[in-house]
Amino acid sequence: MCGIVGYVGNRKEVVPIIIEGLRRLEYRGYDSAGIAVGNGHGLELRRAPGKLKNLEDVIRERPIEGSWGVGHTRWATHGRPTEENAHPHRDCSGRIVVVHNGIVENYLALRHELASEGHQFVTETDTEVIAHLIEQQLKSAAESGKTLSLEDAVRRAVRRLTGAFAISVISAGEPNKIVAARNGPPAVVGVGEGENFVASDVPGILHYTRNLYFLADGDMAILTPSGVTLTDFDGHLIERPLQRIQWDPIQAEKGGYKHFMLKEIFEQPRAIRDTTLGRISLDTGRVFLAEMEISDEEFRDIEKINIAACGTSWHAATAGKFMIERLARIPVEVDYASEFRYRDPIAGRNTLGLLITQSGETADTLAAQREMIAKGSKTVAICNVVGAMIAREAHGTIYTHAGPEIGVASTKAFTSQLVALFLFALHLAQVRGSVSEDESRTLVEALSLLPGKVREILHTCDSECEALARRYSGARDALFLGRGIHYPIALEGALKLKEISYIHAEGYPAGEMKHGPNALIDETLPVIVLATKDEHNRDSVLRYEKTLSNIQEVTARSGKVIAVAIEGDTAIRQLVDHVLCIPAAPELLLPILDVIPLQLLAYHIAVRRGCDVDQPRNLAKSVTVE
């Protein structure tokens, strides 16, 4: 959940490097922030509760300098978000400093043990025990007349930790060295010329280097100005491929937009195009998924698919269920990843596991993947970050190529996931022979037109949604309705509104209105209805007609209806208060267009309410602990 940045090298101004890196990772946590740097006088710390700007104010009042150091921006798990609990944390001597992302599950037992040996604790955090454990290892070695390196002390310490952690450690006793270790949450090491970096996510160091090592669980990295050494927790040398990241650092900037979220909403035409690029043939209608270690024969033998995901990715997964079952004719079960492994799920050799995660490091989704593999299933990952843990453990990966997504509320990652799911469903259908060549060509051509259609929606709906925000930003509640494949989009629209505007919002299948939600409707309740249709699909037209009946249920009770409908639909305008129009598309692709007005509406309402759109309270971008 937290952001870590570390630097060691030949630059004199290390503090601005770390602060700038933390700024790019502030989406990972913004309850407090801190920095520790090493110089000829030892280690100096500055910390502050609240957002990163508070730490910058402290540093302006009490400047520090150093040639190496680590910084941290926190999303609180253990201990309140106070200056005292802010990272970095020190040992008793003040010569060991640790920053940590994750949860040490056995910290209370370790704390009691260390306290009995004379260690004094000053915070409520689990992280502080790590600094004391490292100090204890160094002290025990010295008492035996031995000299222990910082990396060996860290190795001994981490072997005593239970839980998930990514840490970076520096010591006044070993200048110009950072030791990083990973067991669960992500950690990347950047390699430069005469300087090296460590971070919990790529954007934190992308402005300085694109050459990265992605650490795996059980990896340790020792960074000095002259190089990087990778070992396991037992000290054995290991090799990891040095990967070249193609993201342009400017992609992680706001680019003139008021918020990252708005920028990322408007990046969706590009993100959708990049997700399809090189994967479809307009001539033949074929889909090509290159990064697969699963043969066509194995795909044909699949009897069931288990999908696991969290949050917005779960909504994409639920829409993906409709795509896969309709095209490939394979039964699909969708689970919240946090629940999957706790219900003894049915999986095996003929069951495929499909994992969906923007970061590729979501703890619950990784745990679900490992449960699937343990039961004999092969897994495919849909992921945005090249080299992420979930991709390394999967038997096949579909990278979404959405680029860095900084806003906590996912937008372009979601639509890219829907595109990836559609590509996967169509590829599976082609391998299994459940879709004709003509239908494949029609669908692929429709897919290729989506970027232009999304651009059109952005152009026409942005100002309309801004106007609606002026009218409905004072609402206390909102209801989102959809049928079939549009129901998960209703869920996503409700999630977007609640997470960034703090308005209570719920998504419901429109057909369930009579079973409870009708009780909520009055003249103050905005009801957002997905009332789109594919004129060439009989089931879609029937769904649309049923949705019109649901709209009449709402208006009969004085509810205010905002409908998302197809351009040229004159009938619906007679029934609702407002219409947001989108272009026509095949039924399975309509959800990708449906969601754009919902994203814009949530954004403008949140801005109107004065909310922090990019960093909503109590949330972080990447949930890397359970």
UniProtKB/TrEMBL annotation:
Swiss-Prot/TrEMBL GO biological process terms: amino sugar biosynthetic process; carbohydrate metabolic process; fructose 6-phosphate metabolic process; protein N-linked glycosylation; UDP-N-acetylglucosamine metabolic process
GO annotation, cellular component aspect: cytosol
Reactions this protein catalyses: D-fructose 6-phosphate + L-glutamine = D-glucosamine 6-phosphate + L-glutamate
Active site, per annotation: C2, K621
Record domain SIS: where: 295-434, 468-616
A matching Pfam family: GATase_6
InterPro entries: GATase_2_dom, GFAT, GFAT_N, GlmS/AgaS_SIS, GlmS/FrlB_SIS, Ntn_hydrolases_N, SIS_dom, SIS_dom_sf
Keywords: Aminotransferase, Cytoplasm, Glutamine amidotransferase, Repeat, Transferase
Start and end residues of each Glutamine amidotransferase type-2 domain: 2-226
One MF annotation (Gene Ontology) recorded for this entry: glutamine-fructose-6-phosphate transaminase (isomerizing) activity
PROSITE patterns: GATASE_TYPE_2, SIS
EC number(s) from the headed UniProt entry: 2.6.1.16
Subcellular location: Cytoplasm
SUPFAM superfamilies tied to this protein: N-terminal nucleophile aminohydrolases (Ntn hydrolases), SIS domain
Oligomer and partners: Homodimer.
Biological function: Catalyzes the first step in hexosamine metabolism, converting fructose-6P into glucosamine-6P using glutamine as a nitrogen source.
Protein name: Glutamine--fructose-6-phosphate aminotransferase [isomerizing]
Protein's organism: Paracidobacterium acidisoli
Gene: glmS
